[in-house]
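Exercise 7 asks you to align residues with tokens for two separate proteins.
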Amino acid sequence: MESDFKGESNGFTRRGMMRNVAGALAVNAALPLARAAESEGNMKITGVKTFVVGNPWKNWVFVKVDTDAGLVGWGEATGGLETKPPEAQVHELERFVIGEDPIHPERLWQKMYKGLFLSNNVAMNGITIACWDILAKSLNAPLWKLLGGKQNPSLRVYANGWYKGPREPGAFAEEAARVKSMGYTALKFDPFGSTYRFFDAGEEKKSLAIVAAVRKAVGNDMDLLIEAHDRFSVSTAIRVGHELEEYRPMWLETPVMSTDIEATLQVARSIKVPVATGERFNRLGQFLELLAGRAVDIVQPETLGIGGIGGALKAAAIAEAAEAFVALHQAQSPYNTAINAHIHASIPNFLIQECFDDFLEPWVHEIMQGVPRVKAGYLEPSDAPGIGVVFDEQAMAKHPYGPNNFLRLFENGWEKRTGGVQK
């Protein structure tokens, strides 16, 4: 680690960097940085802790990595619609990282990947995200600087999670108009209820009526992104895609099983609405296979699933080679909003960022501070050291794991996002 602090490449000498740290940060934040910079030899990871926060429709799993230099890093290991498995995985992976230097996050990722017989999971990605946080903090720099600087200083955002009422066209239209009044220029929603593979005629008619009502409510100057949650068979997806054309959606997301690349390509080649997919991929080769088909040019890597920050950057590079755009998937906590903002700011093929944050529980901003907020439909990555988010562990403890905090995407009423089975 000595060479990391003696070099001039970031514009600081070792002593100069420490003067800037002392002047820029509060005393309680500056002391760990000073200890990190002045420590002899490598920094070492001394502990890995997990914190589960009970968001009503998805429990969030956070990872805290402690070091002997006093620096702390935070990651996220929220595992979609499961909580205890990824939490347990984090602790099982401690054997790979305790005593290791956290300023080499990608080396640690490879160690875990090989140690798990070439497997990738959300826990190892959460741990390495925390290490990226430590690395950037140790250099007193925001993460985006380590990723090559800002190519996109301001990031266009689309709203998600804004619809929590009854599944009726009028209710969707009213809420969509409210979202537009907040300054958003794009919004995403799933109008398809509990549909699985095939529609009955009534449900199909109602779904299209919801889309029509939203389009009428927001006008033609707002982008609609239609979410399908892997619901349809190929034939159903193609028919729905044709029916959606008159409403000019920006994309139709995951119309068929995301991991069925051949089916996805068949749909994309058969409809005029662009298809977006990729959130369930956990291997970079899946993006290579998808994009080689030259029918999909919007990909949605899930940072927590594809390999953390390093994996997301690699997926974006594969997409760039295929002239495709990237809109990282983000249906986890606001911390992932902050992480993705750093990545999106640094890549040339950024399209738009997903964000639920304005439609979450009011206490969310009590458990973490520093997440970039949406203003007039855009946000900017933090300029604070690291990822730029500070967690309040006492506030987190007030919102424990909830056994019913899961969406049931194929049961009626899931759109209310209240947890549990909806009657």
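Second protein for Exercise 7:
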Amino acid sequence: MKNIKRTLGIMLVCVVALAMTPAVSFANFGAQQVSKDGNWSYLADYSNSTCKVIQWKGSSATLAIPAKIDGLKVVEVDFCYQCGSHTNSNIDNRDMITAISIPSTVKTLDDYCFNNLTNLQSAVIPNTVTKLGSGMFSACHSLKEFTFPSRFTAVPDSMFSGCTSLEKITLHSGVTAIGSSTFRSCSSLKSIKLPSKLKFIGAECFRESGLESISIPNSVKDMHYGSNFMDCANMKTVKLSTGMTVLPGSCFKGCTSLETVTIPSCYKEIKFNAFAECSALTTVVCQGNTILNTYEAAVTPSANVTIYGPKTKTMVNVPNYCNEKGVRFVPLNPPTMTSRVRSASSATLQWKKVSGATGYKVYEKVGNGSYRAVMTMGPNATSYSCNGLNKGTAYRFYVTTLKTDALGATIESGRGSIYITYLK
């Protein structure tokens, strides 16, 4: 009898102890246990006294993430935990949220963690955060401006995709990469200043955005698979990077307000559909020996389009392309040499004027050295004299034609005939 009473007493103590323990529930998040404290659900890491927030059941306008839950430091936020989609089903009353507050304890913001907060108007990421996921603010339709944290050098993929009210984005000078679809469909974003150290722009990065102009820094070396500015219907002016040799396909396809584009001499090839369906495009200025891809139209065939470029052997594909597509090609010819005069220590080159030229450039090569530009002359120049030449040395010269368009871009022809003089 005493043993029975003792057993009943132990059971009663256990029941009381359980009743006094904080409530713990397990949501349907798979095999991993999910703990709950008030409006918050989290995954605990008791070995480090930290946790990851995965669900909020509140109903206030500010989503204020706590620094601690049940005595555990909040170090990670993942509101898309096992959602199976990017709709933030782990946040209740999403449409009520206009602001978020992130404590300095948080180190990681996972993929799409604040996505689809359609009335979110402001957000600040503390500099204590060390990892940013992709798509973090995608489809936050009311977000108007954002300053990218200074500690990160890469803007994640799709970070602001579908932020249709985004008007201002500030990127610090240390940003070197912008991911794919990062600003896609940001229809209110009319301008952006790209950092001078930027090297990479992802595919479809600014597709369907509201950009009216873009100046791509010369530091940019890679624009991934293309379509970077596709369907930017308000895009009127474009300045390409001089750090690239190939312009990717569909890069500016569907930019229906683009009228003129200048392709720097560093570009060796313009890929398929790069300027296709640019219905307002009338002028393409090729400053060098650029090859327009002929497999699919780099420029949509139109009688209204004129391509200007140097007439050289290595640019033979451009006239062929124009003949094939019915596009007008206007070559820039080098000047024709008329006479060459040599004296004991000087040489003079004379040439005929080229119609439409805005200048000429003279190149010189001494001995086995390389050609270098020695003089740029005006449109009326027809001769150049070089004095102080040394006996026993071979000198080579050639002249090119320059033409500056209405936007200030200069085309240079290929080299004309070479004048060689050897002073004995």
